[in-house]
Amino acid sequence: MVDESGLRTARAGKSRSQLLSAAIRILILSAALVTAAGCVYFNQLYNANRLFVDGRKDIEEGRVGAGQASLSAAIEKAEKIARDNPNSRWADDALRLIVRARILRDEWLEAAQAAEQLAGYARTRKDSVEVAGYLGIASVYLGEVTRADSLLSFALAEDAQPDIRADLYLNRGRARMVLRREVEADADLVLASELRPDWVDPRLDRVRLLVAMSRNEEAAAEMVLLLLLPLNEAEQGEVISLAEYLSVASPETGVAALAEVESSSLRRADRVRMVKLRGDMNFELDRVEAAMADYDLVAEMSPESLSAVDAQAALVDRRLREATVPEQLDGYLATMMRISRVPAARSSREVARIRDTLIRMDYWIDAGGLGYMLAAEAARDELRAPRLARRLFLGYVDSDASALWAPKAILAALDLTDLDSDEPSAEELRQRLLEDFGDSAYVQMFTGQTGAQFTYEDLEQGLRRQLDRLERLADQEVRDRLTTTPN
Predict the structure, then answer these.
(1) What is this structure's pTM?
(2) 195, 166 contact by CB (below 8 A)
(3) Does the N terminus or the C terminus of the chain have fewer Cβ atoms within 10 A?
């Protein structure tokens, strides 16, 4: 028999059982919710990491725009984790990804700020070393190079994966370059290259550093190695820019640096252009045979290219400097007209300059008289052919010895006269000036006398009027010839 109290007892027991079951269900539900939230954050971090890896790969392979976009998306996902649940087990991983992505995007201030946040999660020395490395890298580009050197040295005191250590060495080397600690900087760049032999950045920096240190042979050797690496598009552009810098800063170093460029990993068109650049530097160094060999190689590698066209024009330009008589110009003009017919020549300023100069000179020489004066000035100033210019100045005098401007032509020839070998000699030219043209304003200005019939200004103004007309006629001749002989 169950009395009332027993009934109450049974009901009470049932109530406690129900409460216990409800509590268990709440705990399970709470755990499920936590687990679900954790799965959400884990999935977000997984997706962020995937985007980061894709972005880094794109940048390393030269697809910078696509890489930057992927990194930006990765940062956005990681920041949501760090912001919405800073106490989750994934928060530090999210911040680590943010720092690394910011560094790859060259967002140095934001990278430093994220690294400072990451420092709050550091629990071990290894964690602190990692943060120091990130802060050190960012500090280099924020201009805090002394702090960067200290932080990166601390980070390098601990073991790390080779690619991480290479990055730390590269950036400490850059900091030490700014600090003018060149020898230490060079040692860091060498270590970075040894850890990652195919990495382009430390080798680029080392070439620049070695040139600044006047260690030109080592710079050239490093450049040779650099050109043999597999280069992405962006890296090829940097290497070409560096080669062009060397061609100005130290042509001899530039020639040595491009010693094997025809076997490099550059695109074919750029290989051709660099061989042409090597030829230009050889000419500048007066290594004529080497330059001509380079230009021949350019024509062999890519006969219809702009580089080949420019190389042929450079050969003509060089040979013109040695010209001594007007008759030599005919062959060079024919060569330039032939070169002009190559489609690539349309965009060559050198081809147009040399061709048009030769057409004008041909017109002026045929015109005679003051045409010789203009042709002589073009030979001197445009072709850099002093002996030809001298012959043409004197040709004007021989064509009209009584002309008002004959003494001007003799004075111009005198400036181009080699005292040891040219005929007539400098002494003979001076004698002729004094004996035949002593009353000319040109000669009186030369000798310091006065009293000429026409002033120097009168003579120059009259000459200018006549030369302007001949120049306009020569310009029309250029247009006419290019119309009848299509470029």
Answers:
(1) 0.69
(2) yes
(3) N
